Amino acid sequence: MPSSPPKHCPDEGGFGSAGISKEAVRRQLERILSGTTFAGAGRMRRFLSFVVEETLAGRAERIKEYAIGLEVFDRPPAFDPRADPLVRVEARRLRAKLDSYYEREGRSDPIRIVLPKGGYVPRFEPGGPASAGLPAPGPETIAVLPFTNLGAGPDQEYFSDGLTEELIHALTKVEGLRVVAFSSALQLKGKPREIPQLGKRLHVARLVEGSVRRFGDRLRITVQVIDSATGYYVWSESYDRTCEDLLALQEEIAAAVASALRIRLRSPLPARRLDEKAIAAYNLYLKGRYLWNKRTYEGLQASIRYFEQAAALDPGSALPLAGL
């Protein structure tokens, strides 16, 4: 299995699909580097410049840990990204620096340069004034924010993230509903949730948020649909179930959200009631998905082990095989 991050084509999520020119991106890069947030941050300035210019030049496939280590951080040719985490550490710092820039001095900038979590190829998105010129999002647009883990500890994060991703998948079965991808929603995890700003950033009319509390084999899940323009609740419900009802519960929540939005749900797949082994296998599958979404070499290797364990425990499930 390759250890390098997935490639991102500039024309799919970069400057092409958003109608943003290369010249506009370069002006935005200069605006960022000349601001106060990046003042004195020499290595991060070089890092950002390198990944942006390589992407604009059509060389996104070259943006990997090894090349960044050599070109940006002056590592020797013997540099081994698996043994030296420098690039991954600096990428996390760069993402935080970009977030800080756009929260303050770059709040009204026309273009957002985003470094996706788990990758090094930047995306170029409409920012303040550019997004203000877009038509208002239709009522069929929705984003599911990462569910909050109310469990006993952070070791249950995989479960709340997994439920978020599976609910997004279930909502894609709703006829006519346009759902923001899980990868975009995951970037908002742990960040302040100012509903109107989130609605504008994701360009959606409705937001779904919720919380998960797991104790033993019991679940308590709370879900709300919020109008992104006003911040008012459109619908809210709580569910108390056992883990064996989880797959059916995801379909039930999706149907309830669709009903609240007055949109028809496509015929769901026949509900599969889980036995004890299937519950344990599904739990392993969610752990694998959680680690896979970290997009690190170590996370990918660990996710393979979880998927293999899940497949061995429940051979009738396609989920761990899809994960692999």
Specify Rg, calculated over alpha carbons. 21 Å
Could you give a short account of the major beta sheet? Answer: 6 strands, mixed
Low-confidence spans: 1-18
What count of helical segments does DSSP give? 12
Distance between the termini: 10 Å
**Large-scale geometry:** globular
How many β-strand runs? Answer: 8
Strand and helix order? HHHHEEHEEHEHHEEEHHHH
Helix- and strand-based class?
A: alpha/beta
**What do the pLDDT scores average to?**
81
- Tell me the helix content: 40-55%
Q: Beta-strand level of the residues, as a percent range?
A: 5-15%
Topology of this structure?
Blueprint: H1 22-33, H2 42-56, H3 65-71, H4 86-103, E1 111-114, E2 123-126, H5 128-132, E3 141-144, E4 148-149, H6 157-171, E5 178-179, H7 182-186, H8 195-202, E6 206-215, E7 218-227, E8 233-242, H9 246-260, H10 276-292, H11 297-313, H12 319-323
Parallel strand pairs: 3-5, 3-6, 4-6
Antiparallel strand pairs: 1-2, 6-7, 7-8
Helix pairs in contact: 1-2, 6-9, 6-10, 10-11
